[in-house]
Design goal:
heterodimer, A: mainly alpha, 2 domains, 68% helix, B: alpha/beta, six-stranded mixed beta sheet, 9 helices
Chain lengths: 284, 270
Amino acid sequence: MPGLWQPLIKISSPGGVAFYQEGMLVEKDQFETQAQSAMERGEAVPIGSPANPVYLPAPHEVATALYTSFTTPPARRSEMWFHQSIWHSITIIFWGFLYSCLLGVPLGILCGAYKPVSQLAEPFIEFARYFPAPAFGALAVAILGIHDAPKVAIIFIGTFFQMVLVIANTTRRLDTRYVEAALTLGANRLRLLWQVVVPGILPDLYKDLRILLGWAWTYLIVAELIGTSSGITWFITQQARYKNFDMVFAALIILGLIGLLSDLLLERMGRRFFPWQRERLGNS
Amino acid sequence: MVTVETQVQSNLSVKLAFRNLGKTFFVQGEPKLALQNISAEIRTGEFVSIVGASGCGKSTLIRIAAGLEQASEGGVYVENKLVTLPGQDRGMVFQQFSLFPWLTVKENVMFGLQDQYPDKVRREEKALVWVERVGLGEFVDYYPNQLSGGMQQRVAIARALAPGPKVLLMDEPFAALDAQTRSRMQRHLLEIWRELNITVVFITHDLEEAVLLADKIFVLAPKPGRLVATLPIDIPRTKDDLERDKYGPKFERVFKDLSALLADSVPLDQ
C-alpha cells in the first residue's frame, strides 16, 4: 500500500553496497547514508523503493513456511531441526505433566474424599497456587541445572497445585447416592475409595486432565526460555530474531495443531475408556 | 433351608423395631425436630408401607434404619440389635436410580457379594441367578444408562437382595417411573416378596400404592414427624394371592380412611 508510513526501503538493486541483497528491507536513514557513501566512492548507487516492515506475512507465505520450516536445515551444527525442536517440547510437556499427575491425582482424590486430608493440605496448596510458575525459573536453574530438568519443574509447578484443587473439587462432586448405595452393600472405606470414588469420578477426572494439559502448554513457553533455551520456543525466538515472521507463524500454527489434535485424540480415547458413558439405547 | 415350622415361628417374631426414635437436625445452629418418639414393630415377612405428607421425615426414618443416618434418641433394632452402621442385613433401594453407571448389570449385582464370595467365578454365578430372577437375563452385560428406569430399578432390587438381607428397605423406589411400569414393578416386587418371605419396609407418598402392596401401613404426620396411626390392611389379596383388587368396594373404603387420616395429620396452614 503506497504512501502509508513506510519507514523502510526495499532494495531492488544493491549497487555498490556489499551487504545489500535484492529484496532486503533496510531503514531509510541507513539507506541514505549507504547511498551517499557509494556515490562518494564512485560506485553504483543502490536502488530501492519505500516499503513497510513485514510482521504479518501473507497466508500463502505462511503456508509455504509450514513446509520449509521442516526442510530448512539448522543454521548451526549444534542446533536442531524443526521436528526435533517440536519433539523436544513434547517430551518436556510429557514429563512435567506426568510427574504432576503422579502426585496431583492421588492427592486431589484424597483431599476430595477425606476431609482431614483436605484440611491439612488445601490451605498450603491454595497459598502455593498463587506463586507464578515462571518466578521459580532462576531457582529451578540453580538447583536443577540448565538443561531439561528445570523446564520439567516449571511445567510441574504450573499444573500441580491447580490439579490438586480441581480434582479435589471433582471428587467432592461425586453423587452421594453412589457412596450410600455402596455402604448399604457392605463396602468398607478402602473399597469405597477404589470401587466407587475412583471409577465414579474417572470420566470427569479425565476431562479435568485434558483441560490441565492445555495449561501445561501455556507454561511451556516460559519453561523453554529458562536455562538454555530449547524446543519450539527456541525456534520461534530464533526465527523472530532473523525476522522470518512466516516461520514464526508457521510454528504457532504447528503449536495450535498439536494442541487441537492431541485433545481430539484424548477425547476419542476417553470414549473408549468409559464405555458406560455412551448414549442410551433409545428404549423407554 | 428354613423348615415350615421355623418359618411359622419366625413369622410371629419382630424383625425390625423403631423404639422411641427421635431425630433432631441442626439447621444453621438451630435445632429442628424431624422425628419424634416413633415406636413401631414390623414382623418377619411383613410388608409395611410408610406414608405421610412430604417433609414428615419418612425418608429420614428409613435412612436411619439403613444406617446412613444416626438417630438422636432411641433407635432402630433389627432382630433386637441396634442399628448403628449400614450393613448387609438390610438391603436398600433408593428413589434416585443409584446403580453404579461404570459397572454392567451383572457387575452391579456382584458388588455386594464380594465378602461372601471372594472367588470371582462363584460371584458371577450368584449374580447371574439374581439378574435372571428379576427377568433381565439378556441384559447382564448392559450398562445402567442403556436400560429404562424400570429395568434399572429391577437391577437395583436384585443388587439389594443378592447379599441376602433380612430386611428390604425401599425409599419411594417407583416414584420416578411411569404409571404402567410402576404397576408392573409393584407386581414383580410382590412376587419376589412372596417367594423370599422377606420383610419389606416400603416408603411411598402414593396412598394407592401403599394400600395395594402393604400388610400394614404406618401413617406419619409432619412437624414434627410422628407416627399417628398404624393401619392393618385386611383386604384379601387377589391375583394369585398377591395384589389387591383396587376397584373393589373394600379398597375404596380403606383408601378413603387413609386419605382422611393423612388429611387430618397436616395442619391447615400447609
